[in-house]
Amino acid sequence: MDELQEHPLPQREDETGQEQPAGASGQPGWTGPAPVAEEPMRTIPGPERPGLTENERTLAALAHACTLLNLVTGFLGVIVAGIIWLSYRDRSRYVAFQALQSAVFQ
Question: Strands 19-21 and 11-13, how do they pair?
Fold first, then answer.
């Protein structure tokens, strides 16, 4: 079995005429493009949405969790999601949308 041979890094002369090994950005011998300033990280909206109450988040999660009722009964999950949608369609647009989404998914 052949052993792997290490290849030396390319060398480059600096202003003084001395050879400098190629390295990372900002080090002597760097031959790549100039480093670019990083953009600030964009945040993705998470579960903390402004304007939602704890009750609305809980009911939306419950609407999606009722999918598990279908494992036991076969049909009760759709009924529970429909009841949540009917009772919250005028009170909370978010809860109504999540309940409807859960019912359609099932």
Answer: antiparallel
Say which residue the tokens 């759709």 belong to. Answer: 78
CA dist., res. 40 & res. 70, Å (int): 45
The pLDDT profile of the chain, 106 residues, written as one tens digit per residue, is: 556 566 555 555 556 666 555 554 455 555 666 666 666 656 555 556 668 888 999 999 999 999 999 888 888 999 999 999 999 999 999 999 999 999 998 8
Q: From the CA atom positions of the chain, what is the Rg in Å?
A: 30
pTM listed for this prediction: 0.52
Query: Which residue blocks in the chain are alpha helix, DSSP H?
Result: 54-65, 69-72, 76-88, 93-105
State the CB neighbour count (10 A cutoff) for residue 1: 3
Q: What angle do CA 64, 69, 71 make, to 5 degrees?
A: 115
Give the integer Cα–Cα distance in Å for 83 and 70.
15
